[in-house]
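Course assignment 3, question 2. Fill in each field.
Student: A.L.
Task: Predict the tertiary structure for the chain below.
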Amino acid sequence: MIRKGSMKAYRAQRFAIDQFKGVRMDHATFIDCDFSATDLSGAEFRGCSFHDVQSGKSCNFNSALLKNTLFDRCDLTRCTFRSAVAPALAIVDCRAQEADFRNARFLPIESDGQLLFASRILRSNLSHANFSGVVLDGCHLQGNRWAGAISIGTSFRDALLNDGVFHPFDWSTADFSHADLRGSVLGDLNPREVMLLEVRLDEEQIASMLLRLGIVSPM
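Answer field:
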């Protein structure tokens, strides 16, 4: 791991393809920067900002390679990750409201058919982020805020979605088969309208579902 520096500021720059590959950046600021099609494999961004509140401008990661890339406590608000290739990407404790992940590929890293590293998005604010067309199968997605997130054609099969907040959220547009939703706030999830094939729920969630279906009466 190469530590390139901390507290640096970059504005409206187009970066070379491997400029940040394997590099650690601490508390750097990136305003309106273009990371598109760059190789960020093994890079770590800790406490960095990729969104400028005053101008509203964010950064472009479209089609970037994000293999084993870490964003820890970063501001990714309104950043675009369209068609990024992200095996074992980690986004942890970040702000990513209105981020655009359409058609990004969150691929696991496997060896001899065994899963080694799954992509992770943990304890982050994903409100109104766009995950349309994204396959998040088997990803670790615990503790996130999903209010208003767009999930048209999204697959959450076998994903760990514990302790999230899904309110408001349109459950009808995504596949949650075999997902683990225990501990999450499920908002207005209507089991009559959503296929919950072998979804894992806790006792409180199950009781709420039964009440919504009219199978049990409120106390």
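Instructor remarks: The two ends are 58 Å apart (CA to CA). Residues 27 and 203 are 42 Å apart (CA to CA).
Grade: pending
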